[in-house]
Structures are given as structure tokens and as C-alpha cells.
Amino acid sequence: MIALILSIASSTLIFIVFKLFDRFKIATLHAIVVNYLVACCCGLLMNNQHLEFTKIPSQPWFFYALALGAFFIGIFNLMAWTTQKSGLSVVSVATKMSVVIPILFGLLYYSEHLGIFKFFGILLALLAVYLTSVKSRVGVPIDRKNILYPGLVFLGSGIIDTSLKYLENRFLSASEMPLFSATLFFAAASVGLFILAILVLRGSFQFQWKNVLGGLFLGIPNYFSVYFLLKALKSNVLESSGIFTVNNVGIVMLSTVAGIVLFHEKLLRKNWIGIGLAIASIALVAIARN
Predict the structure, then answer these.
(1) What is the pTM of this model?
(2) Dist. CA 66–CA 282, nearest whole Å
């Protein structure tokens, strides 16, 4: 349970850092690349096994980690594109509602138990995510001609979480998690550096130290959000469908509270209802465990 709580806290810190990016005009792509480099370094520092770089490619999870890391930054760029096309609220809802994909994967692929309490807990969690994420009275406006982009964000975000569960279960021991995470973030950083190199050649890249600093502050919680999620999945505190449900609604709820306390955000009635439903959903999933 401690690993799950720390994963929620780390992911909430990511939300806070991104809010500060907007305030201090941080170039998000530049900071994201630095963030992946920092997260990779965190994984190497957390690794307590004897490290031989030449043997890493022989690990059974190596190529999966490379592919998933590249997918990380690909989905990030897709999210940025979708934000430009459809707005931030659309991206927020698509990303958070994607939790349904790893939940269904756990229930169907691993034949996890679905009792009445977990069933209603998951339903309330999805409703809570939507109500808490939507910050306008009119809901989430989506232009039909751009509906493909949030759909891909939804699918891609769900694939990332599902892949983490699959790889954790299939290939990873507890001692390999830091090195696996480092490899994943290295792959993401490599793709990001390639994109930045293109921007340099085009003359559209401007180096600023504040972007490096922003990436530093983002990279540490980003690493631990993945590391502690993997540890939570490895534990027996809940099945993966329960872990993803509690993790997602916990992030939404804590991020909303952080927005109120730190950034003086004003919530609509539906947002408060969403927070209440989030608490109820966590309680139902916890009851289902017993």
C-alpha cells in the first residue's frame, strides 16, 4: 500500500511541476527531454545490482523497454498536438479515462476477480475521473473532424499502463525495476534528443537554463511515479485492476486538492461531486480486496 500511495504522490508532483511550467514559461518539449535524462539517472542510482552496460541488451525486457520508452515521448507529442487541436480539457479526460484499458486487461487476461463492490468501484472511479477533470460547465467540446486525436491519446495512454503491467508480470523481478525504468527513460530521452537535433538544424531551438531546471524538477517525480507503480503492481495489496483504479482516482483527487491549495483553482459543483465519488470508489475497491 505504501508503494501505491507514493506512486500517487509522485504523479501529483508531476501535475504541480507542469502547472509551474505554464507559470514560468518553460519550453515543455525541451524540459521533457531533460526530464527523461534525469529519470534515467535516477534509475541507475537506485540500481543496487552489479551493473554491466554490455549485458543490458541481453535482458529479456530490453527491447520492450526501448519500444515503450519511444512510445512514451510519442504519446507526449500526440498529447501536445491534441491540445492544440481540441484543448487541454479533452486531453485531460482522454488520458485519465484510459485507465479502463489496463483495468479490462487485468480482468480479462489475468482473470482477476470482479465482484459487486469492485464493479461499482470501477464505475464510480470512471465517473469521478470525468467529473473531476472537466473544468467547464458545458462539458468536453470535441470537434468531430478532430475526434481521432483524443481517441489515439486514450488508446496510447492505456497501452502504456497495460504494457507496464504485462512487462512487470512477465519479465521483471523486484531488483530489476530500477534498471528497467532507467532503460525505458533512456529510450525516451534518445528519441527526444533526436527531435531536438532536428529543431537545432532548423534554427528553431533556443537553449535556456530554466528549461533544464524544469526538466530536473520533473524527472525525479516522473521516475518514482513509474517505479512505485511497478512496485505496487508487484505487491499483493490489490489485483492490477484495483491498483490502476485506486492509482488513477487517487491522482485525480490529490491533484485537484493541490490545485485548490497551491494554485487557488475554483471548482464547479460537478468537480466536488467527482471528488466525493473518487473517495467512494477507493473505499469500494478496498472493500472488494477483503
Answers:
(1) 0.90
(2) 33
